[in-house]
Design brief:
- This protein is of the alpha/beta class.
- The protein has 3 domains: 84 residues, Winged helix-like DNA-binding domain superfamily/Winged helix DNA-binding domain (Arc Repressor Mutant, subunit A, Orthogonal Bundle), CATH 1.10.10; 96 residues, Periplasmic binding protein-like II (D-Maltodextrin-Binding Protein, domain 2), CATH 3.40.190; 103 residues, D-Maltodextrin-Binding Protein, domain 2.
- The protein contains 10 helices and 12 strands.
- The strands form 3 sheets. Strands 3, 4, 5, 6, 7, 10, 11 and 12 form an 8-stranded mixed beta sheet that branches. A two-stranded antiparallel ribbon has the order 1-2.
- Helix 7 links the parallel strand 8 and strand 9.
- The longest helix has 28 residues.
């Protein structure tokens, strides 16, 4: 039984006349009669009593008509609810983000997003395996360091950035133009834990140059890390993006010679997953925030 056939059946019920119903539907009467006969054959019972030129709905016809009203009401609800999704009057958004600096970037955006789209339920998942979660359909998109080497994943570059030495304003290195990578070995560093991907990037680059970073404190809270640096308890290696977000007067950033710590940050999606208006609007606001922070697409 097809939706079109049910539409034909309801038109005959409304008109109780095959000719008028066929004219209303814009089909020939033989076509209409054939479709009604097809439904009757499928159900094994007549839907209409044909008495001369008059027709009447049978008991079986009334049962089908009752369920037709339910079906078409559901279709109307489907259209309305999907339109609400298009208009972003409802919906859900699951965002994956690497722990640490990128998590801070997303969280700063949430108040503005919620103000614009208050009916959307947002879930932020901070995890190192965001690509895996994307492939498992646990999240809609993710903010991460790219590239991600998986043909099922599409990457969209947001910006390129450098990482800097970050020190207290009174630190002896605060006013210097730059420091060498070797100097970092002797500094009291405050870094993210080893299992964080941003920390893994630092360690990998240093290992290639036979340099070992020896942090005095490992911590997963950005706010606490900034507080420790301000208090002079240590230095850190942090991204330009993070420092522009916090913009603390008691902190200085110092260039590291030869810019060893460079990275690309982007959004990733599953190539086969539909990106609705909620995802597109979040992406739009994210681009806006990055522009306001003055973050560059190029090194």
């Amino acid at each position: 039984m097809e939706i079109r056939q049910l539409e034909y059946f309801m038109a005959v019920c409304q008109e109780l006349h095959f000719t008028r119903a066929s004219e209303k539907l814009g089909v020939t009467q033989p076509t209409l009669s054939h479709q009604i006969k097809a439904i009757e054959d499928e159900l094994g019972m007549p839907l209409f009593d044909r008495i001369g030129k008059k027709i009447a709905i049978t008991e079986a016809g009334f049962i089908l008509l009752k369920h037709c009203h339910t079906v078409f009401h559901s279709f109307k609800s489907v259209r309305e609810e999907i339109q609400e999704l298009q208009d972003i009057k409802r919906g859900r958004l699951s965002i994956g983000v690497l722990p640490g600096e990128l998590n801070s970037l997303v969280c700063r955006l949430l108040p503005e997003f919620h103000e614009a789209y208050s009916k959307v339920q947002v879930r932020v998942i901070s995890a190192d395996n965001v690509a895996e979660r994307l492939l498992n359909n646990e999240i809609d998109l993710a903010l991460t360091i790219i590239p991600v080497h998986d043909e099922r994943i599409v990457s969209q570059l947001l910006y390129n950035e450098k990482l800097y030495l970050v020190v207290n304003a009174d630190h002896p290195l605060a006013e210097g133009p730059e420091v060498s990578l070797e100097v970092l070995m002797d500094l009291p560093l405050v870094l993210f834990p080893k299992n964080y991907r941003c920390r893994h990037q630092l360690d990998s680059i240093c290992n290639l140059k036979e340099i070992e970073l020896r942090p005095v404190i490992e911590i997963d809270s950005i706010e606490s890390m900034i507080t420790l640096i301000e208090a002079g308890a240590g230095c850190s290696i942090l991204s330009e993006t993070l420092m522009k977000q916090w913009d603390k007067p008691g902190i200085r950033i110092v260039n590291i010679a030869e810019n060893p710590f460079l990275r690309q940050v982007g959004l990733i999606y599953h190539k086969d997953k539909y990106r609705g208006q909620v995802v597109l609007k979040f992406t739009e606001l994210l681009h806006k925030q990055i522009s306001q922070l003055g973050i560059s697409y190029t090194f």
